[in-house]
Amino acid sequence: MKPFSIDIPQSQLDDLQYRLDHSRLPAALPGDGWDTGVPVSWLSELVEYWRTEYDWRTAEKQLNAYPQFTTEIDGQNIHFLHVKSPNPDALPLVLTHGWPGSVAEFLDLIGPLTDPAAHGGDAADAFHLVIPSLPGFGFSGPVSESGWTRAKIGRTWAKLMAELGYERYGVQGGDIGGAVSPEVARSAPDHVVGVHTNGGPNLPPMQMSDEELATLTPLEQDRMARIAAFGREEFGYIAIQSTRPQAIGYGLTDSPVGQLAWIMDKFREWTYPRTTVPDAIIDRDRLLTNVMLYWLTGTASSAAYVGYAQASWGEKPANSGVPTGVIAFAHDVCIRKYCEEANTITRWTDVDRGGHFAAMEEPELLTTDIREFFRDLR
């Protein structure tokens, strides 16, 4: 295990500047709307901001304000933030991001979770945080071997926590992180005191009979309707990334505008409300810092490869028996009875706002739910 500090060579930033200065955007398709992908009119403005105003060194300094380390587990380099609470009795907690996210997702949670007393909370709710970059993502990339399923990542996180000397800890995540977190508990049920996810630990079937659909609540039926719409309108990126991640990786690794557009498409679709542009919901600098962690590390291919070369939708693993809490934001499509098939759900919270990127969209609401879930499990 080695201390790590982000120190991007100026030559990389100069190269990025050159590419942005000489970027070539396509002509707008008819209507220039979001249905065909990110509109040229919107993206061109964000590219200009990236080119002339965004400051990576400021973001780098913000990330480096927290202790970071790298270690090798099962032959893979793993990068992580390790932020200890001033409260020595704090509960260790692993926060796992998803795609197209990064450790930058959690920057607004670190202070309130590690030092709640300084942020209007109770010191008894404090956590020591371990925030790893998923294998193949950012400074944990690239990957050189196959097989990085969510179950394997879960086992790796359990090894990481053992290496750090933590015997009892919680896990939390959304997207891929929401699928990995229960796997940590399955791997180490005697060490994980609780699993918390935003968006649910697993998804319902993509299709179901009319009879089964009729048994659902109106809220759950709406979620199934949005799953169906996702299958019709948005499934293309999964088809590409799960079958040809290297092919799409060439364009994303060579073109910063291409990388930006590929990620911004998902931020627009998955933030809430969907009709609002993503930089009206999440700060532009934070959006660009997240993109930079893909661009500067050249991990578009390996993030795609690890992120979606996974088991099939709806697979039901064994239940670890570890208490599991779920907060379902307005954009989320999880349904409790299907999550209960493989998880011991002890807390379920539906909220009428917020989207897929909960830590960036609704950090206070997510922080509160994490504190309340783990309060009785310490």
Features:
378 residues; nine-stranded mixed beta sheet; 16 helices
Walk me through the structure.
The protein has 378 residues and is an alpha/beta fold. 43% of the residues lie in helices and 15% in strands. It is built from 16 helices and nine strands. The protein has helices at residues 10-21, 40-52, 56-64, 107-114, 150-163, 176-187, 210-214, 218-233, 236-243, 245-254, 256-270, 284-295, 300-308, 336-339, 358-361, 363-374, and strands spanning 2-4, 68-73, 76-83, 91-96, 127-132, 169-174, 192-198, 323-328, 344-350. It has a nine-stranded mixed beta sheet with strand order 1-2-3-5-4-6-7-8-9, sandwiched between helices. β4, α4 and β5 form a beta-alpha-beta unit. α10 packs antiparallel against α13. The mean pLDDT is 95.
Tally the helices: 16
The gyration radius over C-alpha positions equals 20 Å
What order do the helices and strands follow? EHHHEEEHEHEHEHHHHHHHEHEHH
Shape: globular
Mean pLDDT: 95
- Report low-confidence residues grouped into runs of 5 or more: none
Strand order of the largest sheet: 1-2-3-5-4-6-7-8-9
What percent strand? 5-15%
Outline the biggest β-sheet. 9 strands, mixed
What's the N-to-C terminus distance? 27 Å
Alpha-beta classification: alpha/beta
In total, how many beta strands? 9
In percent, how helical is the residue content? Answer: 40-55%
